[in-house]
Amino acid sequence: MFIQVLSYGIMIGAIYGLVGSGLALMFGVMKYLNIAHGTFIMLGGYASYWLFTLWGLDPFKSIPLVLLIMFTMGIVVYKIVFSPLVKVFHVGERIQNSMLITFGLLLIIDNTVTWLWTSDVRSITTSYTGSTFRLYSVNLPYNSLIGFGLALLALLCLHLIINNTYYGKSIRATTQDWEGATLMGINVDYTYLISSGVTFALSGVAGIVIATSYSITPSGGLEWLLKAMIVLVLAGEGKTKGILAAGLFLGVVEAVGVSLVGSAYREVFGLLAFILVLLFRPQGLFTER
Amino acid sequence: MLEIKNIDVYYGDLQALWDVSVNIAKGEIVTLIGSNGAGKSTLLKTISGLLKPRKGSILFEEVELDKLPAYKTVELGIAMVPEGRKIFTEMSVHENLELGAFTREARKEKNKTAEWVYEIFPILKERTRQKAGTLSGGEQQMLAIGRGLMSLPKLLIIDEMSLGLAPVIVQEIAAILKKINKTKGTSIFLVEQNVQMVLALADRGYIIENGRIVREGKTDALLNSESVRNAYLGI
What is the pLDDT of residues B139-189, one digit of tens each? Predict the structure, then answer.
């Protein structure tokens, strides 16, 4: 029984990590706190949903297409909405302004999606939805397993890119000191642009996983934004490993809480853990120093 | 090689530089001396493109620097060792050096240049895997200079090199700079408050006060001039 609870916690925890990684990437590199992060995840989910419903494309086979759509969206949103903020150098001001701007974006997208596609709760139901895989006495739904694998794979890719490529180096340098990065010949604006695209692509993967294992609604993004923020704070200043660990931690705490008291208290346990960490380890659970 | 012609620079509405002109020829070591707030760092930020002049121009080998985005100046051959060093403290010494060779040209020579930098600053070789933030002040300055050299610059600009360093270490770094200038022909522009050290090292100097160049000339002449001795050397 406990193992079953733990496995649920771990599987959703990896998704929390994935959801948190996009928020953390944009916040780390650009110092933008993207309130619309969850909303873009929903858009990724909708992209996958419509490809499935209209064209019958399997949600896991349409991943490259959704990634492309979301990456492009990231570039466009950066060019139109995010790039003017680059001129604000003061970090605090940048965070505040980005919150305002992205909150406006969230309202616009929420309402547009509701208007276009109604506020119905939707999820992708494939032929294998609901079937499970039995490992000893533990039931593992196929969808969740694939979602878990996808989340891990996406985080692994992000980790490898950040640590082993020139783009990753420019990201890390810009995160630490954008002026210093510029003096090295790094085009900070371009780094921001690509980071925005990558963030949105990560949202796309998260959207697919959520649309297949859970459900999407126009305003469902806020719930996931909350998770992403908790993960961001738990992880402390961003290493990808810390993000995954924070996601798993949150997932397991919630799952154990739910099994003890009932699913109505899911959020409460997550937030309790969040507050405790803020009280006793404000620098984050997984930071060195 | 670097020609700064009559530039005015502002922070918003606040003017910080008036009609400043500075020339640096190939292979020269030139210094800019001034007290706090005289406009030294403003001038450097303008050269590296982080600030743009409202009047005047900056030419580097006939290219108009002030028309280019900041990150392009490195490609042209200008390396800046900024005040406060701005090394990437969370990365290893070696990663910092690699970032110095970010431009396409420098990337090709990366390993060779790194070997050369380790040769000049052997202490960096011992610390190669250490996080840059754990280095001592002198080692961090050496790393910042080494990182600047990684881009294979024609002009190396160093802001407040001696700040917070023991005199012995300043002497050591000064000797190394002299050697680099001799063997590689790299021009060096030193912006300093430590006048004695810098006048001994440089060929020519400029003195900046309240955003204006008030004096320029050969370092011997500056060293012997009454006003410089009074104002900066305290003798």
Answer: 999 999 999 999 999 999 999 888 888 888 899 999 999 999 999 999 999
Structural domain total, chain A? 1
Give the Cβ contact number of residue A185 at 10 Å: 25
Domain range for A194: 2-280
Separation between Cα atoms, residue B118 and residue B120, nearest integer Å: 5
* ipTM of this predicted structure: 0.84
Q: Model confidence over A238-264: pLDDT tens digits? A: 577 889 999 999 999 999 888 888 888
> How many CB atoms within 10 Å of residue B224?
10
Q: Give φ, ψ of B191 to 5 degrees.
A: -110, 120
Comparing A235-239, B71-75, B82-86, B137-141, the range with the smallest average pLDDT is A235-239
Chain B interface test: which of A87, A183, A239 (most B C-beta within 10 Å): A183
Chain B interface includes A93 (CB < 8 A)? no
Confidence at B115, pLDDT banded by 50, 70, 90: very high
- b (16+ CB within 10 A) / e for B14-37: eebbeebebebeeebbbbbbbeee
Quick one: what percent of chain A has pLDDT higher than 70? 98
The amino acid occupying position A222 is L
Residue A245 is assigned to a structural domain of this protein: yes
In the three-class reduction of DSSP (H, G, I as helix; E, B as strand; rest coil), residue B62 is classed as coil
Residue A285 lies in a domain: no
The whole-angstrom distance between A287's CA and the closest CA on chain B is 12
Across the range A134-163, mean pLDDT stands at 87
CATH code where residue A109 lies: 1.10.3470
Our CA angle for B173, B179, B71, nearest 5°, is 75
In this model, does residue B231 exceed pLDDT 80?
no
State which residue of chain B sits closest to A89, comparing Cα positions.
Answer: B50
With beta carbons under 8 A apart, name residues in chain A contacting B151: 184-185
φ and ψ of A138, to 5 deg: -105, 130
Residue in B86, B91, B102 nearest the CB of A185: B102
Q: How far apart are CA A30 and CA B203, in angstroms?
A: 42
The torsion region of residue B70 among left (phi > 0), alpha (psi -120 to 50) and beta comes to alpha
From A176, A185, A188, residue closest to B88, measured CB to CB:
A176
Whether the CB of A114 is below 8 Å from some CB of chain B: the reply is: no
Q: Is residue A171 part of a domain?
A: yes
A83 touches chain B (CB under 8 A): no
Test the A interface: residue of B45, B89, B99 with most A CBs within 10 Å: B99
Q: How far is A126 from chain B (nearest CA, A)?
A: 46
Residue A286 lies in a domain: no
Q: Per DSSP, what are the bridge partners of residue B208?
A: B213
